[in-house]
Each structure stands twice: as structure tokens, then as C-alpha cells.
Design a protein that fits this description.
The chain is α+β, with helices and mostly antiparallel strands. It has helices at residues 41-52, 95-106, 120-124, 133-137, and strands at 21-26, 59-63, 73-79, 84-90, 126-130. It starts with 20 loop residues before the first strand and ends with a helix. Pfam families: DUF1636.
């Protein structure tokens, strides 16, 4: 560097502020060969996801039915300004993966949940990715 040129300090861009993510767990989900009575796996998954979300900024809410009955226990993830996701074929052991995916989604710099970094349960269980209305405005 020449003596008369000013020193340049490069300041990295700050990390994006995490976005609020809500996880909706279908509490009525059950496996096809299960009787309709009794505690359903979806309800047990809701309890496990709620517990896994403690000490995080992820909101967890149970819903009556996500209409994905053929593909097992289902969860949806919503983020303001982001695409929405529907996952199926989950099980009661998926709570940690669901919260890890929600945290990944919350810190994504674009409106998507990065595929490569997703936990395996969310890679193989992806049912749908749904655009926001704002994203539809940009289509031809």
C-alpha cells in the first residue's frame, strides 16, 4: 500500500435478523392402519415439537388437519415474506429435525429454506413449497 493511500477497512455485512417462523403440527394425523380412537401420533409429535422449541424463537401451534392424510404425520412451516412448506411422512422422533429446519428457515437470507442444509426428514418428507402472493405478482 502506498504511503499516501488511505487504509481501507472491510466490514462484513451483518447477519440477517432471524425471521419469525411458525410450525403447524397436524395433531389429528395417524397412520393408515391405526384405529381412529386413542392418542394420535400427530398429537404426540405436537408435544415433542413444542418441547424441542423451548428456548428458541420458533412458534409451534397444533392444527386440526392439514389434509395430507395419505402421507403420514404432517407439519407446515410459515415465515413472513417466505414461501410456505408442507412436510409429511414424519414420525414422533422428527421433532429435533423440525425445529432445526425451522431455525434454518428463520435465518435464510432469501424466502426459501436451503435444501442442502435441511435435516434428512425434511428433505425426503417435502410435499409442497408454496409461494407468497408477493412472489406471484412477479410472474409473467
Amino acid at each position: 500500500m502506498a504511503a499516501d493511500s488511505p487504509a481501507t477497512t472491510i466490514v462484513p455485512d451483518p447477519a440477517p435478523e432471524p425471521a419469525a417462523v411458525t410450525v403447524l403440527v397436524c395433531r389429528s394425523c395417524r397412520l393408515r392402519d391405526m384405529p381412529a380412537d386413542g392418542v394420535r401420533p400427530g398429537s404426540r409429535l405436537l408435544d415433542a415439537v413444542t418441547e424441542a422449541a423451548k428456548d428458541t424463537d420458533i412458534t409451534v401451534q397444533g392444527v386440526g388437519c392439514l389434509g395430507n392424510c395419505r402421507r403420514g404425520i404432517s407439519v407446515a412451516m410459515l415465515r413472513d415474506g417466505g414461501w410456505s412448506y408442507l412436510f409429511g411422512e414424519l414420525d414422533e422422533e422428527s421433532a429435533g429435525d423440525i425445529i432445526a429446519g425451522a431455525e434454518l428457515f428463520a435465518t435464510s437470507s432469501d424466502p426459501f429454506m436451503p435444501f442442502r442444509a435441511r435435516p434428512e426428514a425434511l428433505k425426503r418428507g417435502l410435499i409442497a413449497r408454496i409461494p407468497t402472493f408477493d412472489h406471484l405478482k412477479d410472474l409473467p
